[in-house]
Amino acid sequence: MWNGIERFEERREAMPDKVSVRGLQRMKDDGEKIVGVVAWDYQIARIVDRAGVDIVSVGDTVGVNLWGHSNPFEVTMDEMVTVTRAVRRGVRRALLSADFPFGPLQEGTDSAVRAAIRFVKEAGVDMVKVDAAPDFPEAVEAITRAGIPVFAQFGITPQTALRYGVEYNAVPSAADQVPVEMRDALIAEAKRLEDAGAVLLNFTNSGPVVGAAVAGAVSIPVVGGFGGGPWLDGRMRMAHAAIGYAATAIDDPPDTYANVARITLDAISSYTEDVRAGRQVAGGVPVPPAAAD
Predict the structure, then answer these.
(1) Which of 131, 140, 239, 276 pairs with 149 at a CA distance of 20 to 30 A?
(2) Using 50, 70 and 90 to split pLDDT, how confident is the model at 5?
(3) What is the pLDDT of residues 227-246, one digit of tens each?
(4) Which pTM does this prediction carry?
């Protein structure tokens, strides 16, 4: 690590209840799995932090999944700072990360460093998440040199799948289905990101073969969302997906840990029925007998 991150970590580790980057590294070294979630609001942040997750990441996916945007490119840096500040207020123990929206990385290294500093100063993040990190190694290195830990995302993209003749939405699960060239290229990408200073990798669409190979090839922790599994050092998942909090979950129940969307629909439907029937709502003040007649 660069000296700036060492100073950052000394402050973090002085607080014994806090997860630190060094703590994540120890977890990998000890074979303990890292738990990460994506959160976009204060209440969810409080809940997942209490549940004991290690990483809370504020994703630019907030635009599509919470605000109804048609694509993630509509999310701005100002909006990401606002959302991250809200999540920061709910997170006490876990490490807090935030995604760069589309723009700062594409505009150049100086722009990326300024955005990273803004995330630290205005939103209180513990690290910044760089998507498509292999395309921006100079930014990863410059942000690290500025003393800000980098959570670097890479993996099997639609372009990668096309190049090596694999299906993007069907991650290969057998060794004979994985092109050796693809495996070696992804290992090389992971090593370049580690050499650039990344403290944590998010490997998307890894699958068990390439995922295990990459996790074993680098010394830093490797976590993953879709396509991830026990073969990585940990998992990332959107909190809303883990609890089934999406309107689509009402009619198409997801394979997940809860169906909060259905619970919410039932609760609001009951509330609506009570109001229309002239009954007091749950949690309302007691209705005097005369008023009830």
Answers:
(1) 239
(2) low
(3) 899 999 999 999 999 999 99
(4) 0.90
Length of the chain: 293
Q: In which residue are the tokens 């990998």 written?
A: 28
Residue whose token pair is 């809940």: 47
**Fold designation for 3-242:** TIM Barrel (3.20.20)
**Could you give the angle at the alpha carbon of 256 between the alpha carbons of 79 and 126, nearest 5°?**
35
DSSP, residue by residue, 36-47: EEE--SHHHHHH
